[in-house]
Amino acid sequence: MAHRTRKRRLLGAIGVTAVATGTLLATTTLPAAHAEPVQAAAAGVTVRPDPSYSGEKFEGWGTSLVWFANATGDYPPAIREKLYKLLFGDDGLALNIARYNIGGGNAPDVKDYLRAGGAVEGWWKAPAGTTREDVDWWDADDPADWNKNADKTQRWWVDRIKKDITHWEAFSNSPPWFMTESGYVSGNFDAGKDQLKTDSVEDFAKYLVGATERLEKAHGIEVDTLDPFNEPNTDYWGTELGPDGEPVGGRQEGAHIGPELQQKVIRALAPVLKKSRSDAEISAMDETNPGTFATNWNSYPREVRDLVGQMNVHTYGTGQRTTVRDLAKAADKPLWMSEVEGDWGDGQSFTDMRPGLGLAQRMVDDLRELEPKAWVFWQPVEDYDNMKPGGESAKGGNWGEIQLPFSCTSKDTLESCPVYTNTKFDTARNFTHYIKPGDRLIKTDDTSSTAAISRKGDAATVVHVNSTTEAREVTLDLSKFGRVSSRATVTPVVTSADGKLEKQKAVRVTGKRATLTVPAQSVTSFLVKGVSGVATDAAELRKGHTYRLTGAQSGKDLTIAGDGTGLVIRSTNATDPAGQRWRVEQVRGQDNRKRYVLTETATDKRLAIRDGALVAEPDEGRRDAATEWIMSTTGDGTWTLVNAATGQLPDVSGQSTNDGASVGVWQPNSGANQRWKVTEVTGG
């Protein structure tokens, strides 16, 4: 979930200067104006989109429905329709994925103390007179204990958007109060301790599946994935009681559920889901950052991992994205970036470019380093009153791409309950409009750019972020495509302080290159037409070619040790390279999950993991998964090698840089001692 407190989750502003000021806009203009490219230029950058390294079909862009759907589902039609068009309309964010929150719900005698929109109604129906002390009354098999009409406001949104949604996910922030240790859905009294009662695990599984079944039946939708957790292994979710015994702290639903208890929930959920009328798969575990996700996932035994159909991670922390990328490839499961939001500014503003640039760079980084199949906002609609100066911070904030008061009534209009958009809304559309479901993300060598090829494979999109305060010359090098038409063009669509999604004149590609100038503090979608396929020499890893694998940290080559079996790092031996040259053979798989066998040419020994050790073994007999490697890169020229059998990576022991240091195996951790530069030494 998003912000427990903004102090915890306030994301740093990027180091640029705002260039725009102005008044708040009550409505959003979606200009279609054409503008000439900016002529002045600063230091240039070359971007090389590389379709030889592509992802699976991208599922699209999404949002959680809470809390905005709960807050606005009973708003006047004009306001709801305005929000709908901004979120799901073709001129808005054009989202196609939605995450429905299965509310937990406090006891009937607990006065609401959660933030506006945060009190999502649970699907239970308590007997008259039930209090917070009554925790043993619920029976999943008794229809009288279910409220099939629960949560009308969020469910209004389900009906309104269901024609737009291609993937529904249900998730839980907290179990109902009667399944918790504290008796409140805002968390345990000790936020670092488990909140779900161990004797309620089975009931919790039945509650989630029962709510999912009822949601599907009532609305005629199919829920594809069900995640029982939200940032579970954190200390975010706590309840504090005041002197009168009523809660005064903890403003949203949340539940600490540590890795061991997570496993119990997954084990309980799987058979209940299998017996249900729903075809949903389990997704897990929506952890707050990649590092904590990895801690949780690595604690799961294989049989628990096998019960999870999709891996979900948030990027409120940004380290170790490549760790989770490699864990997903090892598990051969789809990976989502399933939630993030942030401020990226210095107080509430609807014109400051910094929030838009900050969000855009986060999207670029997530797409490049995680390689997710989907990218999902926390909630693009935020409470204007909570974000204005004097709200949760003195200066206010820029959470959400759209803001409106969560306190509007049935008598309000768009004039009295205005809808605002900030620059994050504008820059996000540079991604959501031009990288579409069915496209494939591809590698680039520029950290400010992400790229994709179209579903049909006959066009490409490059989204580039210029966070500097000067115009920048950008050269697109299209030489890695197999075919570049003589009529190929690049059309820039620019968002800056001067305009939103301004479509400029197309530029002709010459010599497989096109150079364009983008404004200062801008996000530009380059729409490339007339390219397709993959150039013969595009891939860094080519079948039958031979390479040196040089440690990114040590600068030394992966080498077969003197015993002929172990692996070490040694300086390049140009005169006698025996033991240092590895021939690449693709054996199976596709896209960025291709599997390779690496065989040292002088010894004819292949790289494998046997009995927990990295070994060089004779390349003879059956090649099993222990001899196969999935190779991943962010486009920086270095790669990780994920073993298809164990999920482990070659890892220089102790992060040593010494000649002769041993190379073992370890779980992915994004360390430089696990990355290898690939240098071709002979052709096929």
Structure description:
This protein has two domains: about 20-30 and about 55-440, Glycosidases (TIM Barrel, Alpha-Beta Barrel); about 545-680, Trefoil (Acidic Fibroblast Growth Factor, subunit A) (Trefoil), CATH 2.80.10.50. The chain is about 20% helix and about 30% strand. The chain contains twelve helices and 37 strands.
Index terms:
684 residues; alpha/beta; TIM Barrel; Trefoil (Acidic Fibroblast Growth Factor, subunit A); 2 domains; nine-stranded mixed sheet; eight-stranded parallel barrel; 37 strands; globular; disordered N terminus
Query: How large is the count of helical segments?
Result: 12
Described by strand count, sense and barrel closure, the largest sheet is: 9 strands, mixed
N-to-C terminal Cα separation, in Å?
50 Å
Q: How would you state the average pLDDT, rounded?
A: 93
Task: Write down the Rg.
Answer: 26 Å
Principal-axis shape equals globular
Q: How many DSSP E strands?
A: 37
User: Structural class, judged by helices and strands?
Assistant: alpha/beta
Under CATH, the topology of the largest domain is which? TIM Barrel
CATH superfamily of the largest domain: Glycosidases
The percentage of residues in β strands lies in 25-35%
What count of structural domains? 2
Low-confidence stretches: 2-41
Helix content: 10-25%
CATH class of the largest domain: Alpha Beta
